[in-house]
Design a protein that fits this description.
The chain folds into two domains: about 150 residues, no CATH class; about 150 residues, Histidine kinase-like ATPase, C-terminal domain (Heat Shock Protein 90, 2-Layer Sandwich), CATH 3.30.565.10. Helix content is about 60%, strand content about 15%. Strands 4-6-7-9-8 form a five-stranded mixed beta sheet, with helices on one face. A two-stranded antiparallel sheet has the order 1-2.
């Protein structure tokens, strides 16, 4: 249980960090926005108080000016007042002596101006907060996805190293054993022939592995070039099936529905690589007696060539379908895996199809299994 908890912790650790940062950002910017709104409210109240104090100051100065008889009528009073206190207004009592009975107060427009400034500041703080939260969230999400992608790639690379080690070690050990047996024992011609044939089979297995790694490297570095010619797709697919099935005794499990004389512009080596990788994938993930069906035909409108390879395995979950064509990706844990492979086959298939402007769709077979359906422009 401690190991299980530890594994769960490391898998969920990026999500925990992301959630913590998200909560912290929301809290920090909420507090930042609240603080600035409170400051804007205080500033608005200060401006209002300043207007009211200005009324008191203006009243004292106006009283002094009238007492010194520097102003003799309301017109002169109004001119003097507007020149010195444009934010305020004066109201005279016409029933009494207006120069001695008047009221000074802030203009209505002054209050409106203070409210507008306050609203502008609030809108500015809210917009700044939203924009900053959005930018930071976008940055954290990008970092989070990059981190997850890196962790997944590291895991797939580790799986790749484990699988390559196994794929190399097994045939090399087999070849070494066959050669040592040939050296140390006197074998009949038939026995020696069997061992040599098995050794050649293991060498071919190593060659296929190295070829896949080289093709994947070229595709990954964008250095793979196509040599398109007009090929008989029907013959190429049939030959690939025969070449793959005979050494593996798969003839009885294969159902081939190949339409005759389908021609298209394509790279023959790329087509052969695609077909062999799909057959290998179907064979690896099918039960011992499971059928593998290969279909090749033209679409109804004669615009596309349709190639499909289906198996009767356990199928592929929707989550795994999203990563299915990524380099090094394989379903399950490499340390307990029973199927052979390096996680490069479907990566090669997808990238070769992209170069040939083809498409691939993964479907669920019925009642179980998977269908890989490829479409090429005729």
């Amino acid at each position: 249980m401690p190991n299980l908890f530890k594994a769960f912790y490391y898998v969920k650790k990026p999500g925990i960090i992301f959630a913590f940062l998200s909560v912290y950002i929301v809290a920090a910017f909420s507090w930042w926005t609240y603080s600035h709104i409170r400051s804007a409210q205080s500033l608005s109240a200060m401006h209002t108080q300043k207007l009211e104090l200005m009324c008191y100051k203006a009243t004292l100065e106006c009283n002094g000016t009238v007492a010194q008889e520097m102003i003799r009528d309301t017109i002169a009073f109004k001119t003097f007042f507007d020149a010195n206190w444009p934010e305020l207004e004066v109201v005279f009592d016409q029933n009494l002596n207006p120069l001695e009975n008047y009221m000074i107060r802030p203009r209505k427009e002054s209050y409106i101006q203070i409210d507008k400034k306050f609203d502008r500041k609030i809108n500015m703080y809210l917009m700044e907060g939203v924009v900053m939260v959005f930018i930071l969230f976008w940055g954290i999400v990008w970092i989070y996805r990059s981190l997850l992608s890196r962790l997944m790639l590291n895991r797939w690379q580790n799986n790749f190293l484990l699988s390559v080690t196994h794929e190399l070690k097994t045939p090399l050990a087999s070849i070494k054993l066959y050669l040592e047996t040939l050296l140390k024992r006197d074998l009949s011609r038939e026995q020696a022939q069997v061992m040599i044939t098995n050794s050649i089979s293991d060498v071919n297995r190593l060659k296929d592995l190295v070829d896949n790694i080289l093709i994947a490297t070229q595709l990954d570095s964008k250095r793979y070039t196509l040599n398109k010619v007009n090929i008989n797709m029907s013959e190429v697919v049939s030959q690939c099936i025969e070449k793959y099935a005979l050494p593996r005794n798969l003839t009885q499990r294969l159902i081939c529905q190949i339409q005759d004389d389908i021609y298209m512009m394509a790279d023959q080596l790329a087509i052969e690589t695609v077909v062999v990788n799909l057959l290998s994938n179907a064979n690896k993930y099918s039960p011992a007696e499971g059928l593998i069906t290969v279909k090749l035909n033209m679409s109804e409108n004669k615009d596309n060539v349709i190639l499909s390879v289906s198996d009767e395995g356990n199928g592929i979950s929707e989550a795994d379908k999203r990563n299915l064509f990524n380099k090094f990706f394989r379903i399950g844990d490499e340390s307990v895996r029973k199927t052979k492979g390096t996680g490069l086959g479907l990566f090669i298939v997808k990238n070769l199809l992209n170069l040939m402007q083809g498409e691939i769709v993964v479907k669920d077979n019925q009642p179980k299994g998977t269908i890989f359906e490829l479409s090429f422009k005729a």
